[in-house]
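Structure tokens please, single chain.
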Amino acid sequence: MKNIIYQIIIIFYFTTNILNANPAKIDGLKFYTLGDDNMPWFNLDNEKDLIDLSNIDCQWSHGKKTKCRMHLSPLYNFPKDGLLIQNKIVRSGKFAWKFKNGDGDCGQQRKSDECNTFRERSEVSMLGLKSKNTWFKFSIYIPENSEFTIPISNTIWQIHSKAGPVNFMFRVAPNGDLQWTDFVNHSFGGFDTYKILEANNVKGKWNDFVINMEFVDWPNKSFIKIWANNELVVNYSGLTNNNISKQSYMKFGIYKSNINRFNLMHKDNPPKRADTVVYYDSIAIGKKCKDLKLDKENNSCNKLK
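Here you go.
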């Protein structure tokens, strides 16, 4: 009986949160829902400039093919000023994404209140990818004054699994390096890390990334390759999916976790943290390198060393 009452309270709590959530209003994004899913799906006014998904297919959770759709994360109470489409700092074309996440910028997902689980995020997420050999490109600019507070875990790009855990992340390490963090290939639990960029090359400039992965079902293994500014910085064979989900998808933006570490470090009287700001541009996903159209950034598949 107590368990039933508890479940009713939880359902009521999250239903109330969703109903009272502040709907995001972001210039350049047109929000829509599909049926009664109450999801913050959106289309972009300048989609071809900001992200190219025309050469890749996505899928629903049951596997049916569909066009690639994007939504905000967190789903409800997305942080105010957490995302801006702007034209001042741009890698190619006329527009780029600007994400900002500050102290207390948290929201709710379908089954959790991240404000109570020491997480903050301002991200864009998408449906699962329906492909094996998959190519990604994206460019990132991090201003010099963008703060990545220690010892909080600071993530700026993810490969996640539908209804399962994260598989891979781009993380800013405590020493300022940019790292590839692998959660599915490890010897003793936790994760493995690979350096992508030295700390002195992470901020104040555009950095271009290309990733080529073949998503195969667990426990099969395949390849993982990452180029940073045309230089091959990660190259190994391993698991590309976990044992819970066969569907992988991309997330980009700012995600912070383990904020309680910072609070404990300051004996539960932490100072206010400064904002984290990250710009993204030249995003594309395809089945072949040529699908990425690297020439828009004066690059080419032939330059990938």
